[in-house]
Amino acid sequence: MTVTATAPARVFDDVLNLDTLLTPGELELRSTVRDFVDERIRPNIAGWYEDAHFPLELVPELGKLGVLGMHLKGYGCPGRSAVEYGLAAMELEAGDSGLRTFVSVQGSLAMTAIHKWGSEEQRNEHLPAMARGEKIGCFGLTEPTAGSDPSSMATFAAPDGAGGWVINGAKRWIGLASVAQIAVIWANTAEGIRGFIVPTDTPGFTATPISAKLSMRASIQCDITLDDVRLPANALLPGAHGLRGPFSCLNEARYGIIWGAMGAARDSYEAALAYAGDRLQFGKPLAGYQLTQEKLVNMLLEIQKGTLLALHTGRLKDAGTLEPVQISVGKLNNVREAIAICREARTILGGNGITLDYSPLRHANNLESVRTYEGTDEVHTLILGQRITGISAFRQE
Hints:
The longest helix has 35 residues, at 244-278. The chain starts with 23 loop residues before the first helix and ends in an 8-residue tail after the last helix. Helices cover 50% and strands 15% of the residues. The strands form 4 sheets. The protein has a 4-stranded antiparallel β-sheet, with helices on one face. The chain is an alpha+beta fold.
């Protein structure tokens, strides 16, 4: 099916002049990614979403754009700043959460795991090709019965008696698994949780796309089964011991979400504002009514505040002083506010807003997934609650 979405006019009003807080290089990077989104994603995204199609042809283009593992240094990676990565995430998610999610899974999860915890041999083998978009990676942490509590994962890796490993278990909601060439799989061992690089053509590894989704339709999420998957000794990520390994990668992905969610919110606001200026009701534009103006003002306020929060978080990250709890502040706030903005934008569009001709409801549906992955609202609330009170509420003692 061919669906052509109505692109919003460029009508966002940077009331706080936040652009003055960005360097010329950061503004140039943002413009480059924005142009890519306008040219390659916007004209096609409604059809991709309708058809539940992930455009694999964009992967090498994203590599050429320099957004795959863009915050990583060396091994063919772009080595850009945290703020630059955030700006790219914002522009990509203004196109669609599914495309920003691909960049996040590839760079913030799979590539970061190898870059941070892998051997020199593993880095040289995988990272350059992944940065170019010639090799796709996925990140297998979540399980059917272990989402917010990865410490209870049942996937187990045991020595095979010949120096290698054999893995058995299952993973769920694993982005890109059916199109990836390698999977970073986290498994329990006799010595705690460890990470493994698993070629997806290894016997016993099966990835099955999850269909009939109401969210993230222009993206791929899978179930993975691992049935006596045998690996050599050098499949082990030597630097990763315990949950610190996967959590360090999750924090990279959560950071990108802080920015990305504001991209979806901004795009929805722009669509609603443009529509309100053109749509006549009772003899004048919708934008001329007090209730509509209140909705638009409230959206603008939250986008400006959320963008300022993202930028402050990025500056802290570039300075090397960002704490995980601060990432939770941004992820919890910005995704929650972005969903509210997208839903409010849909009300301005009326009945037309439930069609794929306009972006807000598509963004809102996608953000339900973004709100859930990389830590639910409840998880980030409890992280902040522990910081405030000094008491962990995650488990009953």
